[in-house]
């Protein structure tokens, strides 16, 4: 059997489009600037129903109509379909559409000339719009009747599939894919398999916004998974992955989308490549609780490296899962040292969650996008609030951005219930 | 709450525009039906639900079987506004 000349090259899947809406950016260009500046989207969260949670990286004053305005002139049909579909839809779906349209247009699919029967759609995440459901339940209990007339359609996560496929005229395969905090990675990995096998030529992977109600936020607080944010005076100090003062994740709202594409399709369409996914893993721990496992995380990273035909020393950067939860951060540090060695000459490491919070279902897709931006633009974004690292050997990013070079990166996503996933990413334009 | 038939028509018209978006408002008359304006079954439920909520009334679902056009819809809603 012939071995690939370049690591993972013959099985690489290209990234040809990207879109994002999060607390620090409404486009990929804005995200690049915000990452470089180390801007933090965590602010005070004042919901009288959730006294246990005082910080979050939410979207403020977001309007899908305003977000889609720039596309209306050049893509009137797309704009009309979006308006019609999103008019009385739920907010998580509208956010997904905004990220997906950016990615779709960037990938050159917006002019309507492509045959999109070979283009799939995977919406990452489950239980996506709990806030919409809770609001309707509240109205139902209060009035006995005035719920959203489309509730029976919109409460299904799969509503996003129909909505996005209508807006984007997609006619390939589609599904939602839930894997807790590993949803984004799991969906991307699944799309990679669809493309490698020839089942689909292209696939949009949307990390959907997990919109939590007071119930979910209080439940995370009850288990000690989320920080109250009260230990730190300034909300931007609350999320501190790998710092000794970390005390739980900060919830973030975001939606992100990547278009994945086969090398054949890239050649045929002569499309610009933003980077590649070279391999990945998606493995269970045989454990249903939120107890992270060093062994499971090591297995995920090693398996991903193996699938990409890469050695640990070829990895220049790791976008850590790093939620700012004490047990999770500690476990990931041990796993990183098991994979990359105890010496401090291993890959650079940061956690995007220090800037945008834990974006749950969207996290994996958003963090792969952030990894590509950093590798392609040659900078490492800060790991905010890392004042006293819990590990002195690992090469963590500092308080400021710095120049760096990495050809290959890992992006980790570890979900409640022992769902471990790692993706191997290559930057654009590698020799 | 008492509403005139004209006021109820305006409520139905505004909700039709809200739900159907690109409909020409001048086409919304008492003699057209929501279906003729391009509404599907889900759109019709939305227009009716939003209108009932605004008018503060509840019409049993079975009553809508006899609705043929916007005139009969307005008449039905009006009969519950008294």
UniProtKB/TrEMBL annotation, chain A:
Residues 10-427 form the Ketosynthase family 3 (KS3) domain. Pfam families: ketoacyl-synt (PF00109), Ketoacyl-synt_C (PF02801). SUPFAM superfamilies: Thiolase-like (SSF53901). Keywords: Transferase. PROSITE patterns: KS3_2. GO terms for molecular function: 3-oxoacyl-[acyl-carrier-protein] synthase activity. InterPro entries: Beta-ketoacyl_synthase, Ketoacyl_synth_C, Ketoacyl_synth_N, PKS_Beta-ketoAc_synthase_dom, Thiolase-like. It comes from the Bacteria. Coiled coil: none annotated. Pathway: Lipid metabolism; fatty acid biosynthesis. One of its GO terms (cellular component) is cytosol. CDD domains: KAS_I_II (cd00834). GO terms for biological process: fatty acid biosynthetic process. SMART domains: PKS_KS. Belongs to the thiolase-like superfamily. Beta-ketoacyl-ACP synthases family. This is Beta-ketoacyl-ACP synthase.
TrEMBL record, chain B:
Residues 6-81 form the Carrier domain. InterPro entries: ACP-like_sf, PP-bd_ACP. Gene3D superfamilies: ACP-like. It holds the Pfam family PP-binding. This is Phosphopantetheine-binding protein. It comes from Allochromatium humboldtianum.
